[in-house]
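so ive been stuck on this for like two days lol. basically i have the seq below and the ligand is NAP, smiles is in there too. i just want the complex predicted, nothing fancy, no docking runs or whatever. if the output looks off dont worry ill sanity check it later, just need somthing to start from for the group meeting slides
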Amino acid sequence: MASPTIKDSVVFVTGANRGIGRAIVEELVKNGAKKVYATARNINSLDELVAAHNGKVVSLRLDVTKPEQITTAAAQAQDTTLLINNAGIANYSAIINSYDTARGRQEMEVNYFGLMNVTRAFAPILKKNDGGVLVNISSIIGLVPAPAVGTYSATKAAVHSLTKSVRYELKDQGTHVLCVYPGAIDTEMAAGFDVEKDTPQNVAQAIFAAIESGAEEVFPDKGSREFAEQFKADPKAVEREWGQMLPETLKEIIPPPKPVAVAEITPEPEAVVTPAPEPQAIVTPEAQDEAVSAPMDTPAEESVASIADVLEEKSEAVATQESEKTPEPEPVVEETIVPEPVAQAAPEVVVPPVIVPEPETPKPQRKGEEIMRKAGDTVIRIVVE
Ligand SMILES: NC(=O)c1ccc[n+]([C@@H]2O[C@H](COP(=O)([O-])OP(=O)(O)OC[C@H]3O[C@@H](n4cnc5c(N)ncnc54)[C@H](OP(=O)(O)O)[C@@H]3O)[C@@H](O)[C@H]2O)c1
């Protein structure tokens, strides 16, 4: 089978309104894609992108944590030949010494379950369109964790693993599956960190080259390529080095994150293609938007730099922050929407058994004699014949 090409492809991109997703959309148009479905939680945030690309970019509303929106978007994008699962969040949360475990749960909902459900919804579409291509964005810290951002690292490790499983599940339908492992990229996610970063445009072009060459994985920027070399040579040494990136150390140089509104333990959204998902507690769109669009306090890819470098570079900033302490942010108000009651069959009425005392063995009776016997609450009159 010939390798897929970007030219004339129909592409569906999640999280397309900014960062790497937006760069992917722009570079796709430059590289001759036939149509690009640019998707975002706030559809208005795509207006500029649509206007700039003269009919090639179609905007769709998609929050990847909302199964019903996935179903609707998939129904509207039936001609997709290339799916790029790019949407993601990075919160500041370690695993033991965590500021807020809810933030870790929110990361898993977006980065893992969201990506998984979009993938499941599009697998049949790609099959219909000659197999097509699936691209999932993981991270180098999905390969080696950074303990200070342990929850984010775990989501990206989950994406790494999922992508390998899906590659084999979709092999027979001819879908090519690519996993992307960026290092530090110059987007809002990495905005607070003063480390060397590559551009989102370079990431996009590296992804296209990997698709066209038939690669199964790509390290799309300078930092991730250096990482790949070290990792290949001595994975344990990289792990030990990054293991020094502990929350105890980093919290001294990184301001605590804003609290976020996260649904109470959100059950795994079931069957994306099923119109009636499991009822679950969710936050209002406004609360969710506010929560997720909160500035990222800890970009995971900071871990690419050595701890010594980071500490040195940030120590002056800490002193300044200490003297200009900002007030604690207002907690985001969480609202739980009570799901529609689900119609259920009337419960079966369980009737407790009535225990009737064993009748005594009747003594021999004379003809015509009456015997009164009690069975439960009933008194029975018997006439001997
Ligand atoms: N930047 C890096 O250094 C780096 C390194 C390795 C991997 N990555 C990965 O690359 C991908 C893109 O990151 P980025 O750097 O471009 O980050 P970014 O600038 O923060 O952009 C994240 C994008 O994801 C969207 N998003 C967040 N939650 C969503 C949800 N529930 N449903 C749909 N979209 C949602 C955001 O939309 P809103 O505008 O609505 O929030 C935004 O479009 C992510 O998967 C990230 O983990 C980034």
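Residues 262-365, 373-379 have pLDDT under 50 and may be disordered. The pocket of NAP is lined by residues 14-15, 17-21, 40-42, 62-65, 86-90, 110, 114, 137, 139, 182, 184-185, 187-190, 292-293, 299, 301 (CB under 6 Å).
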